Amino acid sequence: MMPPLRQLASELRADAVSPKAVPALVTGFTTGVGLLVAQIAYGTLIFSGPLAPYASQGVGLVLFGNFAACLLIALAGGFRGAISGLSPALIVAMALIGATTAAEGRALFVTATGALVISAVATGALFLLIGRYRLANLVRFVPYPVAGGFVAGIGAAVCLAAMSLMGAEPDWRAIPALLESSALWKWIPGAAFGLALYLAMKRWRRSWILPVSVALAAGATHLGLAALEISGDEARIAGFLLTSTSDGNLWPALGPADLELVDWGAMLLQLPTMSMLVLVALIVVIMNLAGLEMAANQDLDWDREFRATGLASVVAGFGGGTAASMIVPASLRSKLFGAASRLTGVVAALVIASALFVGDTMLELVPVALVGGILFFAGFSMLDEGLLRSRKRLPGSEYAIVVLIAVAIVAFGLFEGVGTGILATLVFFAVRLSRVDPIESRFTARELRSTRARSVPDRAILLEEGERFLGYRLRGYLFFGSVSPLADQLRRSLSGDPRPTCLLLDFTKVSGSDFSAVNVLARFLRAANAAGVTVVLGAPSKQLGRGLQRNLSAPEFAAVRMEPNTDHALERCEEILIEAWRAKAGEVDERRAALFARTADDLERHLERQIRFEDLMDELEGWLYPRRYAAGEALAGPGAPSDGLQLLTSGRASAFGAEGARLLQYGPGDAIWPVAAGDDRAPAVLADGDCEAMVLAPDARRWLEEHRERLALDLYRYLLAARFETGAAARLPDGAPEPGPASSARNESR
Predict the structure, then answer these.
(1) Do 692 and 685 form a contact (C-beta atoms < 8 A)?
(2) Which residue, 492, 463, 491, 497, is CA-closest to 581?
(3) For 119-140, what is each residue's pLDDT tens digit?
(4) What global pTM score does this model have?
(5) C-beta separation of 617 from 650 below 8 A
C-alpha cells in the first residue's frame, strides 16, 4: 500500500497535468482573492474597539489561521476542492473576547490573542479526538432549529458590528440619530454594497463576483477621493480608509518575549467565553459538513473531516492564528466549476499567504465602507440561511425556536444566546422524545407464545385465557417525558375487562432509563401488586433492576418476576396463566368439562399422530439404532455428531440460536435433522433433560428408498404432514431446524 504522503504527492501531480488544472487555478485564485478580502474584514472587526491599535497584527493572525486551514483541509480532507476559512459565526465570539479582556495596551493584545490561540488549539484537540475515536455520529445531530437560530442571531450581530465598525451606533435608542444625514453617509454605503453583493451572489452564484465587486468598489472609492483632492492620510484620519498599525509584515505578530505580557488572571476570566467559542466552532463544523453533503449530493467521511479540521486548527493555533473550518459555498463552487481537486484549495491558500508577506501597506488601501460591506454581506447571508430559508422548511413551532435564539443573541448577547440554544436543544429533544410512543406493540397469549412445547390441554387453556395475559414490547429511552403516559396506560390495563392475571413488559429494545422512569415504574409495580396482577419483566437492564430494588420494599420487589429474555418471560407468564386457570377450575367442574369438550378434537389428532409415529418406529426398527443423551448434551448443531435423521422418542430438547435464545422445543415424535459439516451458524439442539432418539443413518435411508419404497414414502409422508396440512413450518423462527409433525401442531395455534 502506498504511504499517505506519497499517495498525496502522486494525486497532486496527476491533477496538475489533468484537465482539472486550469479550472483549479482559476477557481482557486478568484476564491482566494475573495476569501482574502472577507478575512481582512473579519480580522478588522475582531480587533476593533480596545484592540483597534493592533488591527493590522490581528488581521495577520486571522490570515495565517485562514492559510493553515485552507491548505491543510484541502490536503488532508476527503472533499476534493475544499475551501476553508474563518466562519462569520465565530467572529462575534472572538470579538467578545477582545472586548471583555481586563487588560490594557500591549498586554491586552497579547492576552486576547493568547485566549484566541488557546481556543484554536483546544478546538483542534477536540476535533482530533472526535475523528480519532470515530465519535462524529454522536455529535452530528444538532437540531436544525437550534442551528438555524445560532446562524440567524450571529448574522444579525455581524450586521450590527459592521455598523459599529463604520462609526454608527447600533442601539435601538439611537435609531433616530442613525437616520440623520450626518450619520447616513457612515453606514449606508457599506450596507448598500453588502446588500447588492448578497443579491448578486444569490442570483448568479459566480466565484468572480466577490473579487470583481471588491476591486470595483475599492477603485471607485479611490477615484472619488482623488476627484475630491483628499489624500490617503487625510482619508485615514477621516475614517474612509483603514489605518495600518504595524511596521512590517502582518505575520508573525507575536514573539517569545510577549509571553511576559500575558495577564493570566484576565485570561482565566475568559474561560467561559473560550468554551463557548469551542462549542460554536463545533456547531459550525457540523452545519458545514451537513450542508455540503446535502448541496453536493455526496457522502463525506465525517471522522476524516474532523481530523483534518482539528489538525488545521492546532497548526493555526501554534502559529498564532485562529480556528477555521470548511466554507460550503466556496467548496461547492469548486465542484460545480470542474475544479474538484486539492489544487484548488492549495492555490487559494497561496493567495492568502502572499498577502501575509506583502505587509500592511495592502491594508492602507482598503476602504472602511468596503470592510463594512463585506461584513453586511456575511450577515445578510446568515440571516437568509437562518431565518428566510428555514421559514419555508420548518413548521411554526420549530421556527419559533429559531426566532427565540436569534432574538436572545441580538438582545442579550452571544453567551446568553448560546445558553438559550442549549436550553432549547434540551427542550426540543425532550418534547420530541415524549411524542414517541414507548410501546412498540401490544399482544396477548393468543397472539404470541413462547417456544416451549405445551400439551394440548395447556394450549387450549392459553387460547381460552389468553386475554388475561397482556404483553407490552417497549422501545427507546424511557425518561420523565415518556414514562408517565406509559404508566397511565399500564394502570388502565389493571382495571380492564377481563382483569389481567399477568402483565409482561419486554425491555429488549429499551436503550436506557433515567431516575424518573424508574420511580414511575416502581409506583406502577406497587399498584399492580396491590391489584393482584403479577408483572414479569423481560430482558431488563441491571441498572433498571438495581433502581427498582432501591425504590421497592423487599416483598414488593420479590413479587416482580425478571427473566433474561423475551422467550423466558413469555414462558413464565404462560405458567402463571395456566396455574391460575387450574386453581379456579378445581372449584368449578363446568370449566373442566368445557376444556375437555374444546380439546377433544385436538387430543384425537394428537393421539392419531402418536399412534402413526409408534407404528412407523415398529416398521423401521431394523434400520434404526438408539442414541441416549444427558441433560445439556448436543443432539445437533456445531460440534454435535451428524449421523443422520433423529426421531425423538422420549424426553425433550430445545434449539438455541447464536445469541442463546431458544428457537423452539422438540418432544416425542419430532424429527431432528442433521446439520451440514462446517455450518457454524446452524442452531444448537440441546437436551433439556435425559432423552432418547432413534437414528436413521444416510445409508439406511438410501437403502429404504431403493428396496422399500412404500416404507420410505410412509416416513416422508409423516415428516411432511405438518407442512402440507397446516403450513406451520413457514412460521418457524429464522434459522430453526424443521421439527416433525408434533412441533408443527404446537405452532399451529400461534
Answers:
(1) no
(2) 463
(3) 999 999 999 999 999 998 887 7
(4) 0.64
(5) no
